[in-house]
Amino acid sequence: MYSATNALINAPMKHSSGRLGMARSGMARSGMVSHGKSKVAIAFLLTLCLSSCLSRPGSDTVDTVSGNESTTAASDVANAETQVRITVPADWTVIRDDRRQSADIQAVYPPSDLYAKVLSESASVLNIFDLENNAEQYRWLIQQELDRFEGETPTGLTSLNGQRAVQYEMRGVVDGTPVVYLHTTVQGSEDYYQVVGWTTEASYQINKETLQKVIESFRGT
Asked: Where are the beta strands (DSSP E) in the chain?
């Protein structure tokens, strides 16, 4: 039987680090992008972002807990290269192998189908767009990778540790499994960040607070 863990460990986040900026930089130079949406620009964005980042390896990390080993207490997990950090509860596992793909940080708790990921991207290109627009494009890319998208709702969160942020609850289906994302876009001083927690729909209500605590523990530059 196909497990929720198999469906969720690499759930749609494949657009991740660097690809949105690369696509938008090319579109800006060619005059394809305005502040509003453009069907041509969105089609170009999807093609470049999704087709080119499936095999992109992640950067090396230095974690405060051993890779692929469960934590014994609430633990900080850091990426020394991108200077991002989150705190995960006891018994979560930090992913450091190829399943992490281009994520800065990825941590999981399979017994409850809980997953968290941090992805960073240089703001040098993205700063020509505002926070809401960049957040919308990040979420749009996830929507395209879901087998079925069932809607999104803003949570009202506006900042994380003093940095401007936008958060949405997103619902959809991955390989037949209903899932819920807490997707947060954070505007840092030099980078944009996606801080995301997700789980099955069945697990979401009882574990929503845990996912939100992991997200709210985020620290970036």
From this structure: 75-79, 84-88, 93-94, 105-109, 114-122, 148-154, 159-160, 163-174, 177-187, 191-200
